[in-house]
Amino acid sequence: MKRTLEKRIILFSFLILFLTILVSAGLDIIGFRKDYINALFLRSQSLSASMKGSIEKVLNLGLDIRDIAGISEKCRELVDGNPDIAYCIITDLDGNILYLSDPKFQNLAIRGASRSYTSNPTVQINLVGKDPAFYDTVTIVKTADGKPTAQVHIGFEESIISAKVKGMILRSVFLLLVFLLFSFSLVVIFMKKSIIQPVSVLLKGVKQISEGGFDVRIQEVPVYEFNELAKNINVMSAYLKNRDEEIRKNYQELERTHSELHSSYLKLEHLSHELEKSEELYKSLMEDASDAIVVVGEDESVKMVNKMAEEFFGYSARELVGLPLTKMLLLLNIENIPKIHKIFKDASKGLHIAEEMQIVKKGGALVVSRLHASSIESGNDRLVQAIFRDVTKEREIMMNLEKSAADLVRLNKMKDSFLGLASHELKTPLTVIMGYAELITTDMADKVDHTVLEMVGNISSAAMRLDNIIKDMVDVSMIDEKRLQLKIDDVHVNQLVRDAVKELAFFFSMRKQKLTLQLDESIPTIKGDMFRLVQLFSNVLGNAIKFTPDGGEITVTTSAKYLLRSKQSADSVQGQSIVNIGKEHHLYVEIAVADTGIGIDREDQVRIFDKFYEAGNIEEHSTGKVAFKAKGAGLGLSIAKGIVDMHGGEIWVESPGYNSDSGSGSIFHILLPLNPLVGDSSLDYMNLLH
């Protein structure tokens, strides 16, 4: 293939070059011949005009042309001075020779012109004579009065042109061969380097790939088109390799499938032997089933009932088998018989129907039953199998559960109402108590006994603590009722952390706990309520202090994260817009509070944010705001979650579990969006792992 292509290209290139140069040389020779002839014609005409002028000057003196001496010598001088000119002859108008340059042209048949090359009446060019032939230029000589009196014949031999053309042909042939050899060599070199070699490389690579060498990669070739072809062949090779691997896998899968089909065939053959036993087995299972089963035929008559059906309905099989379906339903005193009749029709079409109904057993007992109707085939017959299950006790339990759920909802509403009412009702007397206590301890301190003053101070401390609890209750109530208003402003998260830490610095010192801040200074500001965010972070940080033993460590980290947010539906609650930022990546600021405390059980990690919920054993809790395992009202983390939700963020906790001895620790994660819309929101929690 390679040699054939190479020979064809070389032969084609040779023919093209040869024909091109040959045609060019031929056109040059034709042009040269024509130009040479025209040049001789012009020279002949010029010499004829010169001779004519000389003769006419003498004729103007009144002499006859036959009396003029020296014309023959003048003709010889003209011929000798122009080697290409063969003769110069002066004739009369009849063609009789009067003067000539050489006597050997005495018999030249000037009047026998075989061809004429011009139609000018004063100057004519004719082809005269044979072997040799001459181009004869004829110029009319006129007397002083303008009458023609003689003719000047200047001629050159036709063979001169042939000789010149022959020399031109020899030179052209020589140049043709030299240029052809040089051009052909360049073409061959270019062809070998730019075509044959790349084609050979491609052919070699393709041959290896065709033989199964899909790992072969064709190296880069210098020609762009062939290089692109090589790249595509490499891509094809990789694709073929993948296809080959897929075919191998498919072949293996086909073998495996064939083996499975063979096994299935054997199993099917075995099942065919067991098919007869299946009917007996079905009858046996039907008889021993714990539910009442009734089989209805295509003619809507009862074909079969099991023992449980006899017990469930109170009628024997002899009383039920053969009855029309409608009559059996009437016998059982079932309400809305057309609906039940339609269920059996739909089931006969292949649908699986479930319906609950009341049945009156023989003897008058009322039973709640759940009907499951489905289609079965027995040979060419399509039957309907109806399973009746006694759900009387289940219905009673379900009704009790629904009643209990309604009671729980009512109690929860009462709890929320009580929470709001109690917080507002306690706030006024508590304010009075705190006011009088402050008045006694400040303005009337010198009038009161020291013991009484100390007791009033304890009352003031207890009242302040109770006031904090009431404030938390008010916040929880406002959050639940969607009445908590946020004052949105630019918030520096790192500064927020520092402010909250500064407020709790005394408690860190009191508990001898180490606080580590790892704050990313590059995080941007966010939109939020500074006061509520400080309250949120203080609650989370206070929780970490309470459940971390003395000497423990608490680490606070801030960072920015891009998270995928699930698209939420737009809504509005009391004029506030629900966060709806679409399902795409958005920038969030994360605050992580990690401690080395006692940890949190996995079942408590979700419920810990519920109102009044306290994780762990309540009996182990101590009193005090930040004392180890201090007992609180269970509102701090609930308020924190409500504030986070209102900012369109998320809060959750991670902990390996509760362990008071080793201190498994926990990490609270707080995510706040860069620029939320105020309102309710929920993150796609599974996407937080991305």
Automatic annotation (TrEMBL):
Domain PAS as annotated: residue spans: 278-351
TM spans (from-to): 168-190
Heme recorded as keyword: no
InterPro entries xrefs: HAMP_dom, HATPase_C_sf, HATPase_dom, His_kinase_dom, HisK_dim/P_dom, HisK_dim/P_sf, PAS, PAS-like_dom_sf
GO molecular function, one term: phosphorelay sensor kinase activity
Record-level GO cellular component terms: plasma membrane
Keyword Hydrolase: no
Record localization: Cell membrane
Keywords: Cell membrane, Kinase, Membrane, Phosphoprotein, Transferase, Transmembrane, Transmembrane helix
EC number: 2.7.13.3
Membrane topology: Multi-pass membrane protein
All residue ranges annotated as the Histidine kinase domain in the record: 421-676
Main localization, broad class: membrane
Catalytic activity reported: ATP + protein L-histidine = ADP + protein N-phospho-L-histidine
Occurrences of domain HAMP (ranges): 193-245
NCBIfam families membership: sensory_box
Name of this protein: histidine kinase
Organism this protein belongs to: Geotalea daltonii (strain DSM 22248 / JCM 15807 / FRC-32)
Organism classification: Bacteria, Pseudomonadati, Thermodesulfobacteriota, Desulfuromonadia, Geobacterales
